[in-house]
Amino acid sequence: MKLDGVELRWVEMPLRSPFRTSFGTQTVRQLLLLRAVADEGEGWGECVAMSEPVYSSEYQEGCADVLRRYLVPALTGEVDGISVVPRLKKYYGHRMAKAALEMAVLDAELRARGVSFGRELGATRDRVPCGVSVGIMNSIPELLDAVGGYLGEGYVRIKLKIEPGWDVEPVRAVRERFGDEVLLQVDANTAYALADARHLARLDPFDLLLIEQPLDEEELLAHAELAKVVQTPICLDESITSASSAADAIRLGACQIVNIKPGRVGGYLEARRIHDVCAANNIAAWCGGMLETGIGRAANVALAALPGCTLPGDTSASDRYYKLDVTEPFVLDDGHLTVPAGPGLGVTPLPEALEEVTVKTEWIPLA
């Protein structure tokens, strides 16, 4: 197909409650949505970069700039989803921007072909179990109330954000209140150093599913050393940027589990390759989340339905974060979300909802 152009749309999504991690607190999620308009229809993409470069080196305005100046103009002539990344290869980095553009083009192509995102990726399930990510709280009673609420809603796995000073005691409190049967894991977002290994080993008695990204993203060897000290499986998130980096991390013994985030790795097709690497090495994988709208959530649910995604992902229902989503909301059903079966992403933005959260738009022509 041939692209006429790509619309960039800045949106601001107020969160139901503040979401705190080791790198900051969010009260509003700022996102960049893409609408690829082609001769055969249109498709949507979502750029998960944050407004500031605190999770990764990418940030919203930087993504908009590289899309405007380099990435979108590179897609002249005939294009399809699988050709996007090779066409953009000469531009170094900018994986989140590339992922959003690939997603929009792939959505447009699949809608035209009448094929769902899940089918294209190789999904084997029509519904997926859902976990929920619980941010750092002001107090343990507040944390216990939040966890109790999510369990009451039916979430099948709880992930606690941790940082130095908020780790062992919150985990202990959750275990004591809700018991050993709750699937529980923690996420450090690179907040620790290898010198903290003995301290992190204090989490071992709590039978956690995993410790996610405890050390800096570039410290693969340090993660391998940490894995010799702690019994809890190490899961890598920020360190995994491609199928190649996943293979290296597995070979080094730096992780026993991988969190796959399509935006972080450059797109859903690369995410599928990481899934395949994990499956070939008997490494558990799961789909992470970046507080996506219903657009990104639809694609994530499709990824989470692949056979090698054996752990519940951060594919929470829409109302976990937002009172109003830009698509029909994803609703939890007995701890699961349904994988959209319609063409492409299987969801379409609701015009009124989209307009309500839109800050500005920009059209990048290709014709």
UniProtKB/TrEMBL annotation:
Q: What class of enzyme is it?
A: lyase
Query: Is the keyword Membrane assigned to this protein?
Result: no
Q: Name a biological process GO annotation.
A: menaquinone biosynthetic process
Ordered alphabetically, the record's keywords are: Lyase, Magnesium, Metal-binding
What Pfam families is this protein classified in?
MR_MLE_C, MR_MLE_N
Tell me where on the tree of life, at the top rank, the source sits: Bacteria
Q: Does the keyword Metal-binding apply?
A: yes
EC number(s) on file: 4.2.1.113
| This protein's name | o-succinylbenzoate synthase
Protein's organism? Lentzea albida
Which GO MF terms does the UniProt record name? metal ion binding; O-succinylbenzoate synthase activity; racemase and epimerase activity
Cofactor(s), by name: a divalent metal cation
Which lineage? Bacteria, Bacillati, Actinomycetota, Actinomycetes, Pseudonocardiales
Cross-referenced SUPFAM superfamilies, in alphabetical order? Answer: Enolase C-terminal domain-like (SSF51604), Enolase N-terminal domain-like (SSF54826)
